[in-house]
Amino acid sequence: QVQLVESGGGLVQAGGSLRLSCAASGILVRFNVMAWHRQAPGKERELVAMITPSGGTNYADAVKVRFTISRDNAENTVYLRMDSLEPEDTAVYSCRSIGNWGQGTQVTVSS
Asked: What's the rounded Cα separation, in Å, for the pair 17 and 3?
């Protein structure tokens, strides 16, 4: 059974940073495409960043330069480092692999 457990969300002021974690069990992150999505109130869920088994990464235009996705194979965990946070980044952030989703973690950026 695949489980993805996110953590690291919280309340931060604009310009601040957070690092989200997605701890995986039942799959190996190094062999799977792993992605972070977010959903803001009243908006559709959107892809934020993804990392492939070969280590390639892709980002939404809105977060390029500011966000970095990475993984720790030994910890079987995927991270999302978020810098220069903006109020528009406020959303529930969820980890995904194939059809499996985590429960999400709330990120709130105050102006």
From this structure: 26
Strands 10-13 and 105-110: parallel
The three-point CA angle 49-10-87 to 5° equals: 65
Phi-psi region of 37 (alpha: psi -120 to 50; beta: other; left: phi over 0): beta
List pLDDT tens digits, range 2-58. Answer: 999 999 999 999 999 999 999 999 999 999 999 999 999 999 999 999 999 999 999
Residue 98 has pLDDT above 90, yes or no: no
DSSP class of 8: -
Consecutive H or E run containing 109: strand 105-110
